[in-house]
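Kindly inspect both lines:
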Amino acid sequence: MGYLTANDRPGEHARSWYAETAAPLPEHPVLVGDTRADVCIIGGGYAGLSAALHLSQRGYDVRVLEAHRIGWGASGRNGGQVGIGPRRDIRDYEERVGRDDARKIWEIGIEANRLVRDLVARHEISCDIADGYLECAWRPGDADDLTDYAEHLRAVYAHETVRPVDRTEMTDLIGTERYHGGFRDDMGAHLHPLNYALGLGQAAVAAGAVIHEGSVVTEVAPGHVTTAKGTVTAQQILLACNGYLDGLLPRPARRMLPLNNFILATEPLGEARAQKVNRDHLCVCDTRFVLNYFRLSPEGRMLWGGGESTGRVFPADLKALVQQRMLEIYPDLADVAITHAWGGTLAITASRMPLFQSLGDGVLAIGGWSGSGIHMATMGGKIAAEAIAGQAERWDVLARMPVPAFPGGDWFRVPLMRLAMAWYGLRDRL
């Protein structure tokens, strides 16, 4: 049993607040029979849909194969936070790959944020996009590091939308004294992630792409993709499956580890309570290893993410698991009803740097967004489209990033990751 089938009904979106409030869900036909295309894309999330859109705009004949529904995976279930820059601290890039490549990565990450905004505006995607991101220090020492980071971004990268936030202002912003400071960046944003994915799909189809839902890929060979009911022959193949790769090809699978994460939605808090816990309607994330992330929906529900697991099957009581973490920060919300709780699977890399891998013979793989999928996966799809079209400069920069295989091989990398998560989880509680 793989991640594609472990926790959800085939062909149905998770029973989330997002699915309940999504735009109409147009159906796309199952692939039946043999067909040809210039490019076959496996995976109908942000990365695959973005690649399909940008390739179709260049005149390529594109087929997208999605096992369930477009936006079914992490793209339709995540916390809705649109980040700034790459997932990893840019100072780590500077140490690992040098200032020149680090600056290129930073510029790609910033363009990724702008790309999301541009696509939403250009294609009139109704996804409740709103500005503002807040990073919160779980420990006192984290506050100093976040202040240094904000100042580094301003001084080295001329990133003027970020500024440090002290503990007093943090309490004013989000109504809790649990955090020790942090930074605010108004280039960050948040949105309805499933509606954004559906909008990308509609834009791709309008540009000429053909999407097939309910089409689980069973085999990938150079120039040839097989599903249960059909095949696609294509000169170029792009794997954009992220946490739902399910071992389809071993080389990228060894560099991306599936990780489950969980979210709840409360009933609307009411205007006064919502104002107290999130004065400026920012999306919020903290520095715990197993982090908390949260924001308000447009009608004032708390959308809270937290808790992780590496097993295929989700814990039995997601609501209690995530509510416990919310009440650590906001015990006054104990009387608020939880209306939805759901889980999904993302993929992380050992370095938290995204995977851009050429497997040879016209097969490319991208993924490992490590929690920054809205902007970086959208950008990753665009960069993969560039590479397929013969403009590989930005692909080559990202492909140079160190993304080692997880230790332990095929049998032991998950148990080793569980041990590491248990250790860092203990540190979070100290």
